[in-house]
Amino acid sequence: GETLNFECTLNKPFNEIVWLKDGQPIEQDEHVQFSQDGPKLKLTIKDAQPSDHTGTYSVQVKNVESDKVPVTVTKKVPKFVKDLKANKTPLTEGEQLILECELDMAPTSVQLQINGEKVPDDRVKTEVKDKKIKFTLDNIKVDETGDYTVKVNDEVESKPVSITVNADIPKFVKNLTINKKQFDVGETLNFECTLNKPFNEIVWLKDGQPIEQDEHVQFSQDGPKL
Asked: Which of 61, 137, 193, 213 counts the highest number of beta carbons within 10 A?
């Protein structure tokens, strides 16, 4: 992608100028331009590419050839100026995982990986703003514990970030209580408890067996209160 400039100066102006690459004449195109200012000659190659412009260059004037100049054009490989970093770890299932990094150049492609495998596109939101990369995974799951890396331009991979996702285990902040312990026939029994946060998978038990709602039994939930 860089520009190559070859220059030389003759003892006086000449017209029969031939620029050579690996001994073969070079033709002008959208990348290659020749210029001459009296005895001064110049070859300019814009947006140099490894496959097209690596070689040995010289200029021939009236069958007299200059010294040869070897040139190697290498592909620029992105480098991480800020390593991949997570917003937090460990996480609890259901939380949001954000991974960010920054390169020294804008990437052409990026891919988030977990344990060397691509994270499905429908699982991650990918944002690329110039040199900055951001991945967001909502509602993280326990089985998404692992080593995360980002692969850039299908050739450069970041250092791994180890992410641990713990199961969201309910805690009783107020244990199960009943309005009274002995009841007369026909009275109402009220059982109550409070969790550390709202949960959906609630099962009431009697003698270790699940209870079902009917005309006598009703379940209710108000946030963490059951």
From this structure: 137
Select from 2.40.128.120, 2.60.40.10, 2.40.50.150, 3.50.50.60 the CATH code of 4-71.
2.60.40.10
State the CATH architecture for 80-166. Answer: Sandwich (2.60)
Half-sphere exposure of 102 (CA within 13 A, CB side): 5
Residue 117 has pLDDT above 90, yes or no: yes
* 186 pLDDT above the threshold of 90: no
pTM: predicted TM-score of the whole model, two decimal places: 0.60
Long-range contacts, stretch 127-131, CB < 8 angstroms, 24+ apart: 130/106, 131/81, 131/102, 131/103, 131/104, 131/105, 131/106, 131/107
63-75 residue pLDDT tens = 888 889 999 988 8
Average of pLDDT values for 84-113? 94
